[in-house]
Specification:
Elements (H helix, E strand, L loop, with lengths): L2 E6 L8 E4 L5 E3 L5 E5 L2 E6 L24 H4 L4 E2 L5 E3 L9 E5 L10 E6 L6 E2 L4 E6 L4 E5 L4 E6 L6 E2 L4 E6 L2 H17 L3 H8 L45 H16 L2 E9 L1 H18 L6 H14 L6 E3 L2 E3 L6 E3 L1 E3 L2 E3 L2 E2 L7 H17 L12 E5 L18 E5 L2 E8 L2 E15 L5 H16 L2 H5 L2
Parallel strand pairs: 19-23, 23-24
Antiparallel strand pairs: 1-2, 1-5, 3-7, 4-5, 4-6, 8-15, 9-11, 9-14, 10-13, 11-12, 13-15, 16-26, 17-18, 19-22, 20-21, 24-26, 25-26
Length: 471
């Protein structure tokens, strides 16, 4: 829109008034006054007027009369006599080419994290939503993505810094010129400033030589011999053979929770052993048909999850937890599966395991394990859980005492399968045996319930048909 002038077409009349004006980053290309004809009147579009007009008769030219006739009446019957060309220019601040990459929201229970590593370097080109850095929290590793496609101009934060959601990490230039600008300015400063060597040469002046008598140096006293260590003192290795590495936030969080578990719970562990013959035979007979129908391999974990569900239903106190002076009984069964990753231990949760069959459990375990190893598992997938299963047998552990994962009250430990001589029907035969361990909070769970629960695990694993008959 333009400044609009209204002038009556009469002889000798030179008065004009501004009818209205609006400005939105637009202006006419031509600098001449543009006219529109009306009945007995001429409207002049004056290009020289600028400003912020708040009403249609806000500004007047010097010596002009003010006409408060509404604009609606003025524009009736316009007949354009001159075509007007318009051009639009986008207004932006000096940093319109630059965008900031900030730390995203990390979860309800996470307030900050550590900037672990940068995945890109300054000068690299990135696409929109491409990860450029990783922030390590107490639970998961979160990617910082680029908000726009462009060139990384610089990193604002450093590796190892503690960052919060919204903290600026990097500056992205949407054009290559913005990224090249800093390097040009640096080179210009380097050219304008002389080198320190040249300055020193200019400041150096010849000094008159002064004759001095040679001074003979006194012999230095011999260094004392190193102190002799007594035979009782231990010989410690030199410090240059040691490396000090800061703990990751995930490792510190795991250490804190495990120590809190030891300090809070009255931990007690009970053991039993399971004959794996029937479960392994069931898997070997139906593994091909199971894979063809469900698209996933039949493993041993699904059998132990189903056995744990049966045990928790028979002993609900194992699925409960102490909260202050109250006991919370959970009417759902969310089983956590401990997964060891290169960055530390994570415990994804299988939700509503009591409603799942073998195939659904195997699929969920595979999905969560892949996410955990790839570092893409979310906080929601690890939150909660009413009971934990830890399988140390995959690493060759024969026997262990697992530690409870708060705020749960018990944890089941699986171990490696070893052929051992067992007495079956009066004969000594080799059997694939596994030790299982249940660590529980003795403040809430008595030994009777713990032994009955572990006995139920043993019965179901040794004879999976019990699940079908519910006995």
């Amino acid at each position: 829109m333009f400044g609009v002038f209204r002038r009556k077409v009469v002889s000798g009349s030179s008065s004009a008034s501004i009818v209205g004006k609006s400005w939105r980053a637009s202006r006419p290309v031509a600098s001449t006054t543009t006219c529109f004809a009306s009945e007995g009147e001429v409207l002049l579009l004056h290009p020289g007027i600028s400003g912020n007009v708040r009403s249609i008769c806000h500004l007047t030219q010097p010596g002009a009369t003010v006409n408060l006739k509404p604009l609606r009446e003025v524009i009736i019957g316009f007949q354009p006599c001159v075509s007007v060309q318009m051009q639009t220019r986008m207004f932006s601040s000096g940093s319109g080419d630059l965008v900031d990459a900030v730390v995203p929201f990390m979860g309800e229970s996470i307030s900050d994290g550590t900037l672990a590593t940068f995945l890109k370097k300054p000068g690299d080109r990135v696409e929109i939503d491409e990860p450029i850095a990783q922030v390590e929290t107490d639970k998961v590793t979160i990617d910082v993505a680029s908000p726009e496609a462009g060139i990384i101009q610089e990193f604002v934060a450093k590796e190892g810094d503690t960052v919060e959601p919204g903290t600026k990490v990097a500056i992205i230039s949407k054009s290559a010129e913005g990224a090249a600008a800093p390097s040009k300015s640096v080179s210009a400063e380097a050219v304008s400033q002389p080198s320190p060597t040249a300055v020193e040469k200019v400041e150096e002046k010849p000094k008159p030589k002064v004759e001095t008598t040679p001074v003979t140096e006194k012999p230095k006293p011999a260094s004392p011999p190193p102190p002799k260590t007594s035979a009782s003192e231990p010989q410690l290795p030199p410090k240059d053979r040691e490396r000090r590495v800061p703990m990751t936030r995930l490792r510190k969080r795991v250490a804190t929770r495990l120590k809190d578990s030891q300090n809070t719970f009255a931990l007690l562990t009970t053991f039993n052993e399971v004959d794996m013959t029937n479960l392994m035979k069931l898997r070997s007979e139906y593994k091909d048909a199971f894979l063809d129908k469900h698209g996933v391999k039949l493993g041993l974990m699904s059998g132990f999850v189903k056995a744990a569900v049966s045990g928790l239903q028979n002993q609900p106190i194992i699925n409960a937890v102490i909260d202050g002076d109250d006991i919370i009984y959970r009417d759902y069964i969310d089983i956590s599966i401990a997964v060891g990753t290169p960055k530390g231990l994570v415990v994804p949760v299988i939700r509503n395991a009591e409603k799942m069959n073998f195939a659904e459990i195997e699929k969920e375990i595979n999905t969560l394990a892949k996410k955990a190893n790839n570092g893409t598992i979310s906080i929601d997938e690890m939150a909660g859980g009413s009971f934990t299963i830890s399988n140390g047998g995959v690493y060759g552990s024969l026997l262990s005492t697992p530690i409870i994962n708060p705020p749960q009250s018990a944890i089941l430990g699986m171990h490696s399968i070893v052929n051992r001589p067992m007495v079956v029907g009066g004969d000594i035969v080799p059997r694939p045996m596994m030790y299982i361990a249940l660590t529980y909070d003795h403040r809430l769970i008595d030994g009777r319930e713990a032994v009955f629960f572990l006995r139920r695990i043993k019965d179901v694993v040794e004879d999976p048909r019990r699940l079908l008959l519910d006995i």
